[in-house]
Write a structure and sequence with these properties.
One of its GO terms (cellular component) is outer membrane-bounded periplasmic space. This protein is 44% helix and 11% strand. It is an alpha/beta fold. It has 3 domains: 67 residues, Muramoyl-pentapeptide Carboxypeptidase, domain 1 (Orthogonal Bundle), CATH 1.10.101; 63 residues, Muramoyl-pentapeptide Carboxypeptidase, domain 1; 209 residues, Aminopeptidase. The strands form 2 sheets. The protein has a 6-stranded mixed beta sheet with strand order 4-1-5-8-6-7.
Length: 392
């Protein structure tokens, strides 16, 4: 997941690109992330990707909710580059196809949401929704509504104090949107994102291939969803492998209510096993999806209760697909192909049916809200219609 802007950079790499990464991290160490300083000092060859730089990259990735692999690819380099900007450092404007990204955009989106001008998910990308929120703010403040954030708009922000209290306005809006949408899962649109695809097979171990396995699981989920009147959209076929950005665009263009990204894990450690879920969540209290976190927790608990897989917990991350989707999105790592016991269970079609049912019930329970009194792990597809009728 870390295709590089200038080729992958990792331990053993050497050259100007490594020096560039080191220089950028050093600048952050003297400003926003002082904990990096000790990891970057005393390098005998600044153009060498050594152990110190490896640990600094990992620390940065951990701080930003990225995949902590110590490899500098497109996503990590973009985050390093964007971290240098503070709100007010540069003119911000929406340019289709070339979106400005950075911590200054994050701060702008947080400020707009806090003041009641909905800029959408705090993803650090100056897109059309952020531009609309800027225009609304400018008009409300008596400024020309051009959608660009320059000196006058910065001054206007400085003149205002927080006008929304009691939590993130964006989080409150997200929760209210789900509450008002009703209890029934039927009639909604769910995007299923089987990981990898085409020539990208993902993990392979113990006779299993991740891309094939998650496509089979997606088909089982699809059958159950369509049976209760849910429209299902796939992000790929058996022969295609869209980028994370393309998958997010498919979901956004479909106007989906939810997205499930299906994966299976693998690790060199022989005892690594279990299920984990991931939702959009950065290092800031307002840069997260409250509903995504709730759904991730529901999915995790249902799978663990029904399968006995080890609970590897739910985690907030700022991975591209989680960040760029406009609906609650959850990524599921449904066991480790590299673990013989997990692999044996995933190879069993009946076990994949159990996973599919756990996911279906999780989606429905998301919309039941306070009316959901069902014990985790006991609701099944056969009595789901009756359950919904009783709560309508």
């Amino acid at each position: 997941m870390s295709d590089s802007k200038n080729g992958l950079l990792g331990l053993g790499s050497h050259g100007p690109a490594v020096l560039d990464v080191r220089t950028r991290l050093a600048a952050l160490a003297s400003d926003a992330l002082p904990e990096l300083a000790d990891l970057l000092v005393g390098a005998p060859d600044p153009e060498a990707y050594d152990e110190g730089l490896l640990h600094a990259v990992r620390a940065f990735q951990q701080h930003k909710g990225l995949i902590v692999d110590g490899v500098v690819g497109v996503e990590t380099f973009g985050a390093i580059d964007g971290a240098r900007w503070s709100l007010g450092d540069r003119l911000l404007t929406h340019t289709p196809g070339h979106l400005q990204r950075g911590e200054d955009v994050v701060a702008l989106q947080e400020r707009l949401n806090t003041l009641g001008f909905a800029s959408g998910r705090v993803d650090g990308r100056f897109g059309p929704e952020t531009e609309r929120a800027v225009r609304s703010f400018q008009r409300a403040y008596g400024l020309p509504g051009d959608g660009s954030v320059g000196p006058e708009t910065f001054r206007a922000f400085d003149d205002l104090r927080r006008s929304v209290s009691g939590g993130s306005a964006n989080v409150l809006r997200e929760r209210e949107r789900v509450r008002r949408s009703g209890h029934n899962l039927s009639g909604r649109t769910v995007v299923l994102d089987p990981g990898h695809g085409g020539d990208n097979t993902g993990a392979t171990a113990n006779g299993l291939v991740e891309s094939d396995l998650v496509m089979d699981l997606a088909r089982r989920i699809e059958g159950r969803l369509t049976a209760i009147g849910v429209a299902v959209v796939f992000t790929r076929t058996e022969h295609t492998c869209p980028t994370e950005e393309e998958r997010a665009a498919i979901a956004n263009n479909a106007g989906a209510d939810l997205l499930l990204s299906l994966h299976a894990d693998s690790h060199d450690a022989a005892d690594a096993s279990g299920v984990a879920t991931f939702f959009f969540g950065r290092d800031r209290a307002t840069s997260w999806s409250a509903i995504g976190e709730h759904l991730a927790d529901l999915v995790l608990r249902e799978i663990v209760a029904r399968t006995g897989l080890a609970n590897c917990r739910s985690h907030g991350r700022s991975w591209t697909l989680l960040q760029q989707t406009t609906m609650p999105t959850v990524r599921i790592e449904a066991g480790y192909l590299s673990h013989p016991a997990d692999a044996a269970r995933l190879a069993d079609p009946a076990f994949r049916d159990t996973l599919a049912e756990a996911l279906l019930v999780s989606l429905q329970r998301l919309y039941l809200g306070d009316d959901d009194t069902t014990k985790t792990g006991v609701l099944h597809l056969g009595d789901l219609r009756a359950y919904l009728a009783a709560h309508s």
